[in-house]
Amino acid sequence: MSAAIEIHNATKSYGDRTVLKGVDLTLAAGTVTVILGPSGSGKSTLLRAINHLEKLDEGYVAIGGELIGVTVRGDRLKERRERDILRQRARIGFVFQNFNLFPHLTVLENVVEAPIAQGVRAADARTRALALLTRVGLADKSGAYPRQLSGGQQQRVAIARALALDPDVLLFDEPTSALDPELVGEVLQVIRTLAGSGKTLVVVTHEIGFAREVADHVVFLDEGELLEQGPPGAVLSAPRHPRTRDFLDKVLA
Amino acid sequence: MSGLSTRERSAGAGGRASVTPFGESGDATPTGSPGAPLPPGIDLKRLAERPVVPLRHPVRWVITAVVLVLLLNFVQTLFTNPAWEWSKVGTWLFAPAILKGLQLTLVATAISAVVSFLGGIVVALGRISGNPVLSTLSWLYIWLFRSVPLILVLIFLFNLGNLYPTIGIGVPFGPQLELPTVTVLSSLALGVIGLSLSEIAYSAEVVRSGILAVDPGQHEAAKALGIPSRRQFTRIVLPQALRSIVPAYVNQIIGLLKASSLLFYVSLLDLFGVVQNLGSTYPTDIIPLLVVATIWYLVLTSVISVVQYYIERFYARGSVRVLPATPWQRFRGGVRQLSRRPAARPHESREVV
Fold this sequence. Notes:
heterodimer; A: 253 residues; Rossmann fold; 2 domains; 4-stranded antiparallel beta sheet; 9 helices; 36% helix; B: 353 residues; mainly alpha; MetI-like fold; disordered N terminus; disordered C terminus
């Protein structure tokens, strides 16, 4: 399962502040894209617009040719009903910076929640959840509550939860930024195994080393504008735009 | 460079000179005062191997003693003052009339508690909703019933027959179904409606505060997983909100339990009403009757508190790493420890005295 992501003229402002200024971006199916940019550059907003957690003022996002969160009505784009948006989101996995696991549910209950809500039989959901937990190395923690786990373990559960519905697209919003340095590696390792699995991955991160090693495509965003994009070798090693160079100097310093 | 080092050296010398008198005065002070150097001849390493003596609190013990003496004085009067008439308390405690009043209190409180909780969720969701008509109506409802005293609401309801002799429902300006108010609603139903109307206003705010206390990230995660809206609320948001709703709502229920005594003023004989009536019939027994009512209210509140403890424990799962032991588990643990080292307790109590 894989799907290309097409973003066209993504525009968004909060009051007077414009966070996205007409971003155009096409991501090939099954690739890994890393979005880089200084804080406040609009990279998280862009990522959240992909699964319609942020509504765009203008522009659209399409996954596998299907418009996300909006439909065509006459000569306008019109927001879909909440129920339809929720159905679309089931095809898009999302991993949060702060994990956002459900603290009152066990690890296993967290992972089976979405499939059961979609009508998957409880026994099937459980089998698949245990397989996913094994894949992220946490099968023995299935009965634990999230607060009993380390940050790295929680984020790995969150990834298993995002995978539970076998989505075509997986979005990661700074997945390692809330972690202690020694726990970053285990989470990046899990994301690495997902690259090349056929799913389209989009990762907002500051881990330049990870971008260089895993990404097929690197995008640099600053002040709501897409300044530069291309293969990691080009953007990270020989940035053309001075602001990209400036950012990389600061991050790698 | 050389000038700087000279200045440093002189500052250092001055500093050292100013320390010396402080050190001398320190030698003269008693060993107990803070900041004083150790008197000679003490082997600190040896002291470090012994347990540190904890700070004693003599004032605490004095206050405790005074309070205990006052309390015991009062407890003594319970036995020595014949006006308490404990034998009559014993007779009245399980008198059929009292038990019937107790039953009414229980039924009215229980039904109102459930109705108000469910109604509170509806009104709270109305206030939070993005629909301006719903949120304004919910706000007006809360404003109205928090402003009007419960007793006024109850008396209003009992005069509903005067205000609206018949109750009807139908298409506006079309066919109507109408029934006489008095036959539709029994007085207990009116009482429960009155209690609930007022209670819903408070519980709506309790529920709303609980929902607001849930991390916004939880709503987002539920949305991102595509969980249907109603399930988002019942499975993700409400269970987490209940952790802060339960203590506040149990408080409300205990208030409700006591507010149900106002039903007496609309001629419903609840526990308090029965006691009030019996008091005028048997004026000599008024004190024992009041004691009986007090005992039953204490019993009911105690039962509610125990239930609250276990409900809170249930909703705390996941929010702490390890749940603390229940009082029963602690009691059993204590007994086990006592039987393991029987000499421990007398030794401890001797040390305290």
